[in-house]
Amino acid sequence: MRTDPVAPEPVEGGTSRLGTLGPPLLKLAAMQGSWPPHEPSRVAAAPVANGWDAGLAAADALVDEGADLVVVAGGGPPAPALALLASLLSLEPVASVGTSAQPGWTALVAEVRAGVRAGRAHLADPPGLITALDAQPLAGLAGVVARCAERRTPVLLSGAADAVAAAVLADRVGPGTVHWLLAGVTAPAGGPARGLADLGLTGVVDLRLGLPEGADLALGVLLGAIRLARA
Length: 231
What we know:
Structural class: mainly alpha
Strand content: 5-15%
Helix content: 40-55%
Number of helices: 10
Strand order of the largest sheet: 1-2-3-4
Distance between the termini: 35 Å
Largest sheet: 4 strands, parallel
Number of strands: 4
Radius of gyration: 17 Å
Mean pLDDT: 91
Order of helices and strands: HEHEHHHHHEHEHH
């Protein structure tokens, strides 16, 4: 059974000297149980898993092998993730995709609109919604997030659409999952940004980056901030 972390009391004047890195460090310290937080001994990347149960099993394997921070970078097809975010957050498809002049924008909006329409009858049934969206890899990612939270293992998210959508889905299925999540980067406008806002998460770094590589950039900043807090 998952238990929610309790923030420890910072020492030596709190976290003000750490600026905007203070809140995520304090949250990580709550997950670990003491201040200042310690550097993770084994950082693992979330694997691709096809389906919720496969995601649960993949997370169990990571934690059993000693992972104490799991990075969920994502990077899969955006349309199912954006449709899932639109469905769960009651967004119009255009609002989920975001306004952009990028090539393929019109086709992406059409895909998201079709996904929202297909999933409309399953809003109260996450497994049914995933099936309607044909998004089993996304379900696998959500299963990783959910099981890591159940096993009290911190998760660092990128701003990619599927990473954020997986986190929102995991928290809807298992309320309180968000207490074990850190947003690596602030996501760009659209569904990913709204998803992080719905979870109450602010990026370790404000890059407004929807690429999976954002998780690696944020991880470097987070590790550096831990060393600074412990200095």
